[in-house]
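Working notes for the structural subgroup meeting. M.R. asked for a predicted model of this chain before we commit to crystallization trials. I am recording the input and output together here so anyone reviewing the notebook later can reproduce the run.

Input as submitted:
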Amino acid sequence: MKQKLLWIVVTVCRLLVAAAFIFSGVTKMIDPHGTEYKLHDYAEAFHLGSLMPDTIALVLGMVLALVEFRIGISTLFGIHRRVASRAALVFMSVFTPLTLYLAIANPVSDCGCFGDALVLTNWQTFWKNVVLLFSTIVLVRWHDKQVRMISEERQWLVLIYSQLFVLCLGLYALWRLPLIDFRPFKIGANIVEQTQPQGDAEFVTTFLMEKDGKQQWFSLE
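Returned structure, recorded in token form:
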């Protein structure tokens, strides 16, 4: 009974970690430029904007997506269980304290973990990472309880083709447009409907004017 319960806990943790890393890698790679812009936001927040030119931010974002996706696929299929579990733990050990700082200081509006596909607040991101950190600790401690989904002889096929798949997503987005556009003002969206106020709310246009160091708000009238 104890062993069965342990296996269930390990399996749940495994699926959580695999889903989070795969989803994170895919959403970053679907829109590489979006990931690039988010990395610029981080660089500006930490006063490192001059050290993050566009090309480096773009390449770094794509590499991060590839690594996350590789960890997620390995965890899902039980490939290199010890290495994949430890790599996931390293990731979460770095990003959990970082997201705690983001939640407290709020230098950026959201972490951008899942691009525009799923926007979380900084506190939501932190608690999500706490759950994933606990899950990765479980996987490292009981990595041998993870059931293999594919034989060792054929696991290289899964790794190569999955990496090629997600890389092609990124290259296609760079060459043309993201395969799936999660932004609110994507092509085909009705901008008028998207910007309509909800409920009893209404838009009011105001102007902030300054003269002799004194600021005052003015309406259109």
